[in-house]
Specification:
disordered C terminus; single chain; 7 helices; mainly alpha; globular
């Protein structure tokens, strides 16, 4: 009986794992490619540019502004004079940082959203993790932009290694997100004992009392 139940449980677990992987893949493609498509729709040079949508629903430019403004504020706190436009941060006597689409963190946000929505957890825990994860990525991205501005402002010799430092920041972001997901998964994964064990224990207890 135990072998049959274990086999059934294993089969059920395999189905859930396959469902999770398929859902993760489909949602990630949907979110990541959807953002790329919308970037094209809202970019004047894009293949699918639409002036009405670009003027009224440009959330990508909104995210750029939400990253650039606080990053410039942090850079100024350290004594540098910085100015910015819709996509550039220029530190006087320092670096010029261009905030492109790839700098917005939408790729890792897409992965996070796909993973959390695919994982079998309660809606309360899912929404909570989405909010915490997206806010974490947003804050880390502000720190990344301001950190690069300060690093190249203080250490001019490091400007030749921009890509190196850029990738280090990206790796740090992914490591932190994976750590958060690890603890979230651990919290939402419960090991359940087979029901038969519970009934066996109850019968044992009953027998002990009768004796």
């Amino acid at each position: 009986m135990n072998e049959i139940q274990n086999a059934a449980a294993k089969k059920q677990a395999d189905k859930k794992a396959i469902k999770f992987i398929i859902s993760l893949f489909v949602l990630y493609i949907l979110f990541s490619q959807g953002n790329l498509f919308m970037n094209s729709v809202m970019n004047p040079g894009g293949k699918y540019y639409n002036a009405f949508i670009a003027e009224n629903f440009d959330y990508i430019q909104g995210l750029k502004n939400a990253l650039i403004v606080p990053a410039v504020w942090i850079i100024k706190l350290f004594g540098f004079y910085a100015i910015h436009n819709e996509m550039d941060v220029m530190v006087v006597n320092g670096p010029l940082l261009r905030i492109n689409y790839s700098c917005l963190g939408l790729g890792v946000m897409s992965f996070l959203a796909a993973f959390v929505l695919s994982f079998p957890a309660s809606w309360k825990e899912t929404i909570k993790m989405l909010i915490i994860g997206i806010i974490t990525i947003y804050i880390l991205n502000i720190m990344r932009i301001s950190g690069l501005g300060l690093l190249f402002g203080f250490f001019q010799s490091q400007r030749n290694y921009f890509e190196y430092h850029h990738e280090i920041f990206n790796v740090i972001v992914y490591i932190i997100i994976f750590i958060i997901l690890f603890f979230w998964i651990k919290r939402n994964t419960k090991i359940r004992k087979p029901k038969e064990n519970v009934s066996d224990n109850q019968s044992d207890n009953t027998t002990a009392k009768l004796d």
